[in-house]
Design brief:
single chain; mainly alpha; Tetracycline Repressor, domain 2; two-stranded antiparallel sheet; about 0% strand
Length: about 325
């Protein structure tokens, strides 16, 4: 029984299950934005989003296993340690892809959802296989999330308004930042040893004698991506044409400004970490990620209403804290 429990935990770690609800929020929010309120179909969207997450992360773990072996800190990862065979990872990748498309064909059997899901999987797969070898791969992954969000919309309607595109672009720039900046910083040491060509390394970020060296070019790139994200948040609010004198609108703006401050404070801390401390960086990234996601939901709250907004806030954050605690014994710091 103990061996079965440990084996199950290892597979959940391989799936990065603690962050799967965050990935699945993209198609779920897409469906909710366009008016989908059927709980069963929303559950199917959530499940397809989780399968997309599993496909992307397990394929990434499989492709990067030799790179990860170069870092002592990553030796406990399921594939690196050998506790899960590589062929099992291959099977999970194929199965998650098949299940996602079967669910789509059964419950959303029209051309656009299938097309957008194909684009999302293809772009995600290209990033996983070639991401550390080609320039601009972070934008390829961002495009994958753009289409998985648009997939959620297309399962209920083909009416792609300006607000819909703004939300999809928010996911695009969020993922670019998440991967190029956060991922680039926390993995810079072993990425450099493995000869990976990430955006961070191409812009001169490195670890020198235990010190994290962040270049002005990388800071500028990161800041521009984040500023675009924040501008899109405000555009999303203004596109809803609220009455500027309503108290709820002023509260909404105040919350967005507060969360913007958190983003810039944590961003400043990213770039001013003297000693390279991967654990501390991961904690900062967790706070930064939550603040970004909450900004999106605060901006959408007039459309969703109170209870859907609260549910969407709690879903990925509580999911993350619960499964992170189960899998790693820590609330905010996974071993990834």
């Amino acid at each position: 029984m103990s061996n079965m429990k440990n084996s199950m935990l290892e597979y959940l770690r391989l799936l990065r299950f603690q962050t799967s609800a965050a990935t699945a929020s993209a198609p779920l929010i897409g469906g909710l934005m366009i008016g989908q309120r059927d709980l069963f179909l929303l559950f199917i969207l959530l499940l397809i989003g989780i399968l997309y997450h599993i496909f992307g992360f397990v394929l990434n773990e499989y492709v990067d296993v030799e790179v990860d072996k170069k870092s002592l800190e990553l030796h406990k990862k399921p594939l690196v340690s050998g506790r899960i065979p590589s062929d099992h990872a291959q099977f999970i990748v194929i199965l998650s892809c098949i299940c996602a498309f079967l669910l789509t064909v059964i419950f959303f059997p029209t051309s656009l959802p299938i097309l957008f899901l194909v684009l999302a999987f293809v772009l995600g797969g290209i990033y996983d296989v070639f991401g550390k070898k080609i320039i601009g791969s972070d934008f390829i992954l961002g495009a994958g999330f753009f289409f998985i969000c648009l997939f959620g919309v297309s399962t209920f309607s083909n009416d792609f308004t300006a607000i819909i595109y703004v939300i999809c672009f928010l996911y695009f720039f969020h993922i670019v930042f998440n991967n190029a900046v956060e991922g680039g910083l926390k993995d810079v040491y072993h990425d450099h040893l493995a000869g990976a060509k990430t955006s961070a390394i191409r812009m001169g970020v490195k670890v020198k004698e235990g010190e994290l060296v962040v270049t002005k070019m990388f800071i500028a790139f990161s800041s521009v991506i984040r500023i675009i994200f924040i501008c899109l948040i405000f555009l999303l609010i203004f596109l809803q044409e609220p009455n500027v004198w309503l108290d709820i609108y002023m509260l909404q703006l105040s919350l967005v400004v507060f969360l913007t401050a958190i983003l810039f404070i944590t961003l400043y801390k990213f770039f001013n970490v003297s000693a390279f401390d991967r654990s501390r960086l991961k904690k900062l990234f967790s706070v930064h990620e939550m603040a970004s996601y909450f900004m999106l939901l605060v901006a959408l709250s007039p459309i969703f209403g109170l209870w859907i907004t609260i549910f969407l806030m709690l879903l990925p954050s509580v999911w993350y804290l619960v499964f992170n605690g189960i899998l790693y014994g820590k609330l905010l710091q996974p071993q990834v």
